Amino acid sequence: MKVLRWAGAGLTALSLALAPLSVKAADEIRVGAFLAVTGVMSLMGDPEKKTLEMEVEKINAAGGLLGRPIKLILYDDASDPEKSVTSVKRLIENDKVDVIMGGSGTPQSMSVLPLMEKAEMPYLSMGGGVGIVEPVRKWTFKTPQTDRMAAEKVFLDMKRRGIKKFALLSENVGFGKSGRDQTLALAPSYGLEVVADEVYSPRDVDVTPQLTKIRGAAGAQALFVFGTGQGPAVVTRNIKQLGITLPTYQSHGVASKEFVKLVGAAADGTRLPAGALAIADNLRPENPQRGLVQGFKKDFEARWKVDVNTLAGHAYDALYLYVDAVKRAGSTDKAKVRDALEKTQGFIGTAGLVNMSPTDHMGLSLSSFSMVEINKGDFTIVE
Fold first, then answer.
1. pTM, two decimal places
2. Which residue from 87, 181, 305, 383 has the least number of CB within 10 angstroms?
């Protein structure tokens, strides 16, 4: 049974109540989520929403969690950090949820961290910024690889190609801003020099002025674009329009077939670090993620009639990390679940093998990334 609520302040609450009508509300496990279903980050939030709906249905159809049905209460924050705060307050105070997942992006995730710590409630972010989990916060965990890891993976590929100088173009907020900081800090340790450093807004409809400056930068051997959502699509189209032929890198923030469809052939040759979902059909039989990601891909695409992507995997991992922690804790008690999350070891998710600890609330290594290249609308492994 699907229930549609209206959340005030322009927020749409999508509540998925899948338990039998005979089950009392007190028996439900209430999973709260806030996602960028609309707005500039809808390329992320929409597949995450689809994933949570589909997987909650599956869990309930199989008997629920600890024999109890899950009720998903999901708000669209429209990619706006202020609406993220409003959504989280509503989930905590009105909906009385047991856990919160979301923040499709870094700005949304960062905006709610004080609320989550004050509420003493397990929080699983889907944002990429390293600042979400560094420094470690007691109640906050996250599922995707960090912007720092993306920069490191790109730098390793640059070195293999003999690139020593590159231009950087990044978003001026959230994930892009944090990615810029990480890139500038790490580049010297890899023997790389940033010869141009330009920024753009995720709402910009044209970035040709910044790209024109980059085209004139002396010595640039490559271009690294750091952003997520619709912004990198604008950048990629402008690169093609200006005839810039530098080898181009992006972050895992665009590891999505929807991004490729938005820009078409303009993306050909672009390289980026990506998780297993982007290359699910090309994983080797011995890869421990192969069965998981291929099964999820098949189910997602059959249900929604659209391509699965890495971003959908962020939501899958958040939900099942929580499910796994609840099972090990034998309870939905928030403190017990938090402790179980922190002790997660050997969890196979779409992002990789997760091993958390008191000093690591993400639990992924650099090996969870593969370097891929976009060609003819698909991702191919290049390492």
1. 0.85
2. 305
